[in-house]
Design goal:
There is one protein chain. The chain is α+β, with helices and mostly antiparallel strands. It contains twelve helices and 14 strands. Helix 2 packs antiparallel against helix 12. 50% of the residues are buried.
Length: 441
């Protein structure tokens, strides 16, 4: 049997075995399985992806991972590798539940856009219309002092209100205190207790009303609408969804997104009967040696962090991605209109994307991406130092999770792991390179 047919046989067997396991679980329904060659992909080349990550895990660089790749609505790779828990050595399972951190942001963004479709929100609405505390904010403006050679900061009034669009595209002026370069903003966030010390991106330690009140008292890092800075915009967007809908963000997402799409394991905490499926990180990051402490998802949080608090599975996120790729619907459930998905995945930064740190540099360590309404969006086939197509949209989470959707190639990739640290950007690029190398039609 030549190598090509060995790979085909192995792929068919693996897909059939995965399907049999799925039938015995309560995981979300997956797309139909297909031999990669039937949708223009190479089994042999996908096996190189599997081998690469298996070796990284064997070398102790990752605890474990679940990888899902779908093309033309067919699943061509669905792999669980390594261990789910480095302490117990329990093997990784395909239905493992992961802290997805900022991959919660696309969920919250879709939730807001369902309210836009109902005319309960308008993108140009001021945030203060729904959250009055955000009226008349102050902005911390850096000014270079030539005599001292240092940067000083002045407080000035915001020139305009931040809008719903600003929240969706991260041009509100709201920052993450732990990563912003604006010293007064960093100091104000620390004093307000907006971040739990020692825990990776824990922004859910206070109640919703208190979060809004504390954040509104801190200065903005930029004048609204003038710069892209990644931060607490989507958390505030979640508070807007709650104010407009009269529901908690978790309940709204369950009713409007998770239940219709049969995303059975996506929420803001892991119930007791599912805790055995929760994936865990190493105690210390293999690259830096720094200790790792992720958010506690074993009990409901004080607030549903729309920017960082979600948990999900590869299967759930694949269903979410397929809904978007289909233009807002999946298996008879319509979540958004096709035009709304098109709007969300368009460039909403324009020239703003050419100034300062860009979305692609944060996510993938390369320029070439702008930002839409909830996602980074690839500007052209070139520019970025990673494979992809113009119009591809994507995001990831600080604990290592990552997804992208390529409408031109009808391709979805989902990578789930619990490995925060600098290596996560490297693995995202490697994953994309190996997946695109497997396209052979």
């Amino acid at each position: 049997m030549n190598s090509r047919y060995r790979y085909l046989f192995a792929s068919v067997f693996a897909l059939a075995f995965a399907a049999s396991l799925l039938n015995r679980s309560h995981a979300a329904e997956l797309p139909p399985f297909a031999v990669p060659e039937s949708v223009g992909m190479s089994s042999e080349r996908l096996d190189k992806l599997r081998s690469y990550f298996s070796k990284e895990i064997a070398d102790g660089k990752l605890p474990g991972a679940v990888i899902a790749v779908a093309r033309q609505g067919k699943l061509v790779m669905y792999e669980s590798l390594g261990v789910q828990d480095p302490v117990s050595k329990a093997p990784m399972t395909k239905d493992a539940i992961f802290r997805i951190y900022s991959m919660t942001k696309p969920f919250t963004s879709v939730a807001a856009m369902t309210l836009v479709e109902e005319a309960r929100l308008i993108l140009t609405d001021p945030v203060s219309k729904f959250l009055p505390a955000f009226a008349k904010l102050q902005v911390s403006v850096p000014r270079f002092d030539s005599s001292s050679g240092k940067v000083a900061y002045a407080m000035v009034p915001a020139e305009r209100d931040m809008t719903i669009q600003d929240l969706l595209r991260h041009t509100s002026g709201l920052a993450y205190g732990e990563i912003t370069a604006n010293a007064p903003v960093k100091e104000a966030h620390a004093k307000a207790g907006l971040q739990t010390p020692g825990v990776v991106a824990d922004f859910g330690g206070i109640g919703p009303a208190e979060q809004v009140d504390r954040l509104a008292k801190a200065p903005l890092a930029h004048q609204p609408g003038t710069a892209w800075e990644y931060g607490l915009s989507t958390d505030v967007l979640g508070r807007v969804v709650e104010a407009v809908s009269g529901r908690t963000l978790g309940r709204f997402l369950k009713e409007r997104l998770f239940a219709p799409l049969k995303m059975t394991d996506s929420e803001f905490s892991v119930p007791p009967d599912k805790l055995g499926r929760l994936a865990e990180p190493f105690a210390n990051d293999p690259a830096t040696g720094n200790p790792i402490k992720l958010i506690d998802v074993t009990a409901p949080p004080k607030n549903d962090s729309g920017g960082a608090g979600g948990v999900s599975t590869a299967a759930d996120y694949l269903r979410f991605g397929q809904m978007l790729l289909n233009g807002g619907h999946l298996d008879g459930a319509r979540v958004l209109g096709r035009g709304t998905v098109g709007l969300m995945t368009s460039d909403h930064l324009g020239k703003i994307a050419d100034v300062g740190f860009t979305p692609g540099e944060l996510l993938l360590g390369t320029p070439g991406y702008t930002f839409g309404l909830g996602f980074a969006v690839r500007r052209a086939a070139g520019l970025a130092g990673t494979p992809g197509s113009a119009g591809e949209y994507t995001w990831g989470g600080i604990a290592g999770t990552f997804f992208w959707i390529d409408p031109k190639e009808e391709l979805i990739g989902v990578f789930m792991t619990q490995a925060p640290g600098p290596s996560r950007v490297y693995y995202r690029k490697l994953l994309k390179q190996l997946v695109y190398a497997a396209i052979v039609d």
